[in-house]
Amino acid sequence: MNEQQATIRFLKAMAPTVIETHISMIFLDEHYAYKLKKALTLPFVDFSQSRQRLLSCQDELRLNRRTAADLYLEVLPIYRSSGGQLSFEDNGTEAVDAVLKMRRFDSRLLLSKLAEQQQLNQGMMNELADTLATFHQQAAIANDPQGAQRLRAVIELNRRSELLVNQSLGHQRMSELNQALLQDTAQHAELLDHRAAAGKVRRCHGDLHLNNICLWQDQPTPFDCLEFNESMATTDILYDVAFLLMDLWHYQQYDLANFLMNRYLDAQDETEGLVLLPLFMSLRASIRAMVLAIQATNTSNDTEAAKYRQQAEQFLDLAFNLLQGTSPQLIAIGGLSGSGKSTLAAAIAPFIGTAPGARVLSTDRIRKKLFGIKAEARLPAESYTAAHSTRVYHKQRELSSATLASGYSVIADGVFAKVAERNAIEDCATQATTPFTGIWLLAPAPELIQRVAKRSNDPSDATVDVVTMQLNLDLGEIHWHQLISQQSTQTLGEQALALIKLQQKEVQ
């Protein structure tokens, strides 16, 4: 760092506010941020030479423009004149250093800050899921079939700090966790390798947590990707998403974690990989625990050290909890349009199965996907013929069976107006030998009509006329548990979860 003192003075004179991380210094003026790589060498990075720092800035610009082109502006080499003065003007000499120029944003709009203030919402998660799905579809594929080995390498890297972490926390739980992670990786090695061979390992973001996503022009915008280590950032795309899901779970934003997962999977079908999410999330939590435990050791402030240790313990607890697998089950929620099926599904999904909760398969969303349009876009009436509806319910059963086979729980959300449709979804659970709970939601006709009339920007295209038509249908005998939906979502959710728990006990 001594060799950079003149550079630091030059940047401070221009942008006096400084934020420091373990490998960078960020200089802020009113409108821009200038990021300087520290001249250092660590096990995972070498910034000791000015040329390496320049190349790293160029990599960071290129890679972050994939998701945040408006924020990442240019790389500015720093030159020294014959008189020893530093400037951004090219004077024909070799650059002594370089900075990455970025547009400054309001730090209060970091998703981590919004999570602390309980200001995250489904709209943000919907947009973020679409952004990530598109990003992963376009990311460069790694020509490497060794998916399991990649994950083992991450765990082994963690183990190098195991002794230090155990000493910091005063117990051996990190050692136990690493062993559990290795065992889980071995259990899923075939699937991990299959996904790698199928092109699911890509050059991802690599550091996708809430503090690296901001609201820019009202859009959730991932930034600050892991640019300095290709190997660490080249991962299974679900491992990339898992960091964000784990972070939301840590902030106790269970509903949003489940919502984000489901919207991502609607856009990017990763059904076979779902069973890996608990392992991926647990590994992400273990890395957070390791970093915090080491920070506790490296600080001389006792209060700060105690805070870091407490946080490390929280992430350790989370990592262990995420590995506690549960058996899959199928829940079907039926009822006429406006009865609150999708609202109930979203409310209970985080609490069904392993974190981040059940896969919600909605006929409304499946129909839009089959027609190749966004869930909130409207379809014409001819898209709702009997033949089209048969195709939609068939696709829902197909996805339900595949998800159950992967070891993951499902909530099937649809009208299920026909006895045959209800029997068919129940057969999915029978064939998968998993517990089934059918829930039928009831509401008075005026309530159904009022709810549907108020809808906007909704995946359902149902109108008041559709509700009127449904009210005249012969629904046949309904054997599912019937609940009145004209009550609070929390109360209805508690009733539904109690029924599901009871059903599980009866099966056992």
UniProtKB/TrEMBL annotation:
GO terms for molecular function: kinase activity. It comes from the Bacteria. Residues 54-250 form the Aminoglycoside phosphotransferase domain. This is Predicted kinase. It holds the Pfam family APH. Keywords: Kinase, Transferase. It comes from Oligella urethralis. InterPro entries: Aminoglycoside_PTrfase (IPR002575), Cell-binding_unc_protein (IPR052732), Kinase-like_dom_sf (IPR011009), P-loop_NTPase (IPR027417).
